[in-house]
Predict the structure.
Amino acid sequence: MKRKKINIAVTGLNAIDSPGPGIPVIRALRESKEYDVRIIGLSYETLEPGIYMHDLVDKTYQIPFPSSGTKSLLTRLGYIHSVEKIDIIIPNFDAELFNFIKLEKTLRDDFGIKMFLPTEDQFESRQKANLEEFGKKHKVKVPHSRMIFSVNEIPSLRNEFSYPLVVKGKFYDASVAYTPEQVATHFNKISAKWGLPIIIQQFVYGSEVNVTAIGDGKGNTIGAVPMRKQYITDKGKAWAGISLDDKKLIDTTKKIIKSTKWRGGMELEMIKTVDGEYYLLEINPRFPAWVYLAVGCGQNHPEALIKLALNGKAVKPYKKYDVGKMFIRYSYDLIVGLNEFEKISTLGEL
Amino acid sequence: MNIKKNIALSDTGFVFNPSSGDSFSTNPIGMEIIKMLKEGKSNEDIKSHVLKTYMTDEVSFEKDLYDFMNMLTKMNLMDVDQKDETKKN
């Protein structure tokens, strides 16, 4: 079958110890049976390894940090589009998604660039601070949580929570605290990096299971693959994992996608207790960094996202996946000429 | 108690629980017992097979089998909710 040529811009090229999903998404797209992709990397920092992975990324452009706002992002994307004729953008960071969601219509109408993102309501409703309400609305168990804005609020946590509890950043980072003093330490560390509020969540004992999934925006689950982390880094990231046969977890995923009419890729982070109960810890509004495991299991979620973005028509849902497939990450040293580093640092493109 | 239906067992004694992602290794006799459990054999069937095939006495084997089954339960490989059909035999 002749594959359709398509230009896709992808963010999240930071294939580091706390990896962004960009590189696995690109690997998935490179294995597409329907699309012959040219990959335009969009980077924030000059040392994102994906910039230098020329077998995966054809050309990279730096884009402004999310804190710069939508206007400067739009200007930069306009320039990149004038050179590269982008068909689709796949943003892969939580922190940048808000800007891309805001720009979705403009990019489509003015440049013909398509995306397939959650709506602003979907994005906001699953924010960590709103998750408890989300659980009530969609009938999913969520550990009790509360936002705090100051260390002065820590002593009062005893009235609502029992220790240990989890201290979470607005976008990233989470640490377990066994005493109020540990809460204060984590509060200062996380808020210095990600700002306020800090979310306090009741710790739930059990094993962490995650699902990578994609919804068509009409309530249908196009694909879902559950995984258990087998090897976890000190940052809590999966360094190895295995696909599971867990009907209850798949049913919960389908229920959430149906109930929210989720649009685009997502990752559900859940805890399975010893009693077999599932608690929703987080919904990430984009593919996880382990999404390539889904491809290994027979479900190419990034390819499905392209179909949804391009056609807007019904995409056939995946019915099955391989159970017991594992992924194991590894580190690898790229040797890079200083001229390449110089180019991306000074010209903002490579 | 029955062994979970979806438990996978390889020829080398590698046991995989697809619901939890846990995997274990067992020796040849453990493998043989798990295989019989998967076939729905009762404890009595297993005992009579082992006593016929290997040089062991009934009391020792009963104790070992009890320990082994406990271990399988702890490893979450047994279906505790399911009706205990092996006891019927």
Q: What stands out?
A: The two ends of chain B are 12 Å apart (CA to CA).
